[in-house]
Amino acid sequence: MHEEGAPAAEGSRLLTTHLPCVDSFYISNAEFRPILLLTLSFFLQGLIGAIFAGFLGALMGVGGGIIIVPILTVYMGVPIHVAIAASIASVIATSNAGGSGYLEQKITNVKLAFFLEMFTTSGALIGSVVALYLNNQSLFVIFGVMLLYLSFVIFRTRNLDEMKFATGGFLKAKQDKVSSYLGLRGSYYDAAEGKEVRYVVNGSAPGGLIAFFAGIGSGLLGIGGGVFKVSAMNKYMNVPMKVAVATSKFMIGVTAAVSAITYFAAGQLDFYVLAPVAIGTTVGATMGTWFMNRIKARNLKMVFAVILLYLAYTMVARGLTAWGIFLPYLGGS
Amino acid sequence: MAVSTFLFVGGLVLFALPPVRQLSEPVLMAATIVLLATPVTRTLVGAVAFAANGERRSAAVAGIVFLILMLSVVMGFVFHLSR
Predict the structure, then answer these.
(1) Which of B22, B36, B56, B57 to mutate to test the interface with A (most CBs of A within 10 A)?
(2) Which domain does B72 fall in, by range?
(3) How many domains does chain B have?
(4) Where are the beta strands (DSSP E) in chain A?
(5) What is the pTM of this model?
(6) Across the interface, which of B28, B38, B62 has its CB nearest the CB of A114?
(7) Per-residue pLDDT of chain B (83 residues; tens, 9 = 90+)
């Protein structure tokens, strides 16, 4: 399907773009599968973008999908449904690469991960099926609005860890019944703070609810949903930021698998888009994992919030053009 | 993870070689299947490991997650067949 000049499926319509890496593509009315002009430039852009997304994703405990989808759509001209499918599958690679590193460092809380996974996988199943019926412009706007919200949440919680480190608040919190029943507590050595941090988990109900919506977001938008889970664990469940990041990284592969399998069966997973993205995110996530426990959580959050704010704008600006609202594009094409 | 990464790289290399370009798609498909199978396996292993350690509650939780994953496979096929 990727050969230059390949015939379009019957009933398809030809779309053209002015992007240098994508000459033209057909979108089948049935399957939305594009014919992309695959060039070295295309693969390199995908690879570099994915390394960046994987690196940043590992630092923040997200799959990198919230970075890679805007890169694929805004900078490389890949249709958003295809970008979402490739992104969600690559999130599994990121989770595998980053997750194992955190397990070795004994930061991940595996019991907590499986508890929250019950809710996220349920949501992911619903979200991925809904996404199959949404049009491109709606997905752009939903994606942008979600990034805007996340940028705000991350900025607001940037000092939470330092406040709790100072007061010993992670251990002072009272466990709820579910957390106590499942034995959700733990400890890890924080290299940046230079001490052992102990904590107990609470807020199982709000945590589970947010995890469910994170799952819907994951299936709908091709993200691991890690950024929601990290915020939920850190803000509502008394989990230190780095444990939240590590646990989220462990979880997102399972969440992503639910959505990726659905997209795969629906025929929207393009192997040639996925390949450079999966390789790049694996490399980036491995690098990011190494750095994560060596820098302050506050610095992580500040940088990430600014990047998300920018990506939110670029996505919303593209989505709004369908309704005749033209905002200046700050980057991309 | 290493297997799927190796297959993805191999698939792209095959794509870059015109005489064997046709082989790239099945190789990349195999890479994708291995990738998708990894978290499913991880969850199953987790459930078994918890059970082996006598942590029945955690084993049950991991088992539920595994069942939801299996449900996604079923839903995917149902969606595909309904189109």
Answers:
(1) B36
(2) 2-82
(3) 1
(4) 13-16, 24-27, 185-190, 195-200
(5) 0.76
(6) B62
(7) 688 889 999 998 888 888 888 888 899 999 999 999 988 998 999 999 999 999 899 999 999 999 988 888 777 777 777 76
